Amino acid sequence: MPLASSTSESSPKPAVVIVGAGAFGLSTAYHLLERGYTSVTVLDRAEHLPAVDAASTDMNKVVRSSYGDPEYTRLARQAIEGWQWMMISIINDLQHGAKVERLDSPASVRAQFPLELRKSGRLGTFTSLDASSTNYINHDGGWAEAERAVELLSEHVKKRGVNVLPGKVVKELVKDERGQTKGVRCADDSEYEANVVVLALGSWTASVFPSLNLSGRCLATGQSVATIQLTPEEAEEYRKTPVVLDFRTGFYVFPPTHRNVVKFAIHAAGHTYVVPGSTISTPRTIVSDPDNGLWIPRSVLKELRVQLGSVYPALAEKPFSGTRLCWYNDSPDGNWVIGRYPDDSGLVLATSGSGHAFKFLPILGRLVVDVIENKLDPELAARFAVHREVKPPSGERPSVVPQELNIDELCGPEV
Hints:
five-stranded antiparallel β-sheet, 22 strands, 26% helix, alpha/beta
């Protein structure tokens, strides 16, 4: 049955199949339920959910609303309200109600950290900050326990009737006689019919569906992450520290988790990986490469230690306990891809988080359902369209050209 051009409150809701049980997929399932949809199925390749190698399966993610782009600031403020219910960036943020404080000197930056840490000599001096630096603390931002949030949302939608099926590797789209998508076919030959199929596969989107020609719209890039295991006593000293994010380098570091693990990473262009016989970057993870799928480039490992030392010198002397390539799905301009695939009324894409989508978990699905119901604000529809005119990157990352992953340069945390 083809999707109607509009959806009224009294008309039957279309059946929806969502491919991918990550942030985009589950948020979409939630908002479909909120609008009265009763036939919602979520399919995911992983045998156990959340998928161990999904970008959203992480110990923590930054939640912030300070964006140079006012539209993302507006959406982020809405998302932060959603997080609270569920459990010129400074100017933009202030206009939307954030509690933001300017920090005009290295001393004022250091003052945001616990007194005992400042006295101990285990906190950086931040003397690299100069007059051109814009420094601030956002009292409404912080971090979210990412994997737990995805687990809770998955359980919530399942209890409300969404059919969440793990171990379903979707191989192809099923089309009707007019070439419109009407369902999906899995590797086990099972088929799932729908009026609308939502592709929310994250960094696997382009490689799983090469016929959609998404290269140049969706690019899988691996971002290097490392962790340090602290003792309970060590962790207590850093427990009340803020999330630190340096837009000059892309480096960011979290306070210790409840398991006393400190995570840090560099938000940059990252690395691509093209498997033999393909031209499309494909995630290389612990699932595809069990022996060394968690390793990262040696050069980035060294840079992570240098950057960590600028914030927490003592931690930079400790051995790393873990590494990981977290695979983003990047768009060329950093905007998400949320829209109908051209000339196919039954196919909607919800992907290209570009390293900054998870914080919007409470509202991402609202945008996707607006697309399904042809209600998305025209300006947002143009911004997120699949085949939009691509604008220059936003400048939120220090580099925009990824490097191809050199397998010989990969190493684990022990180096």
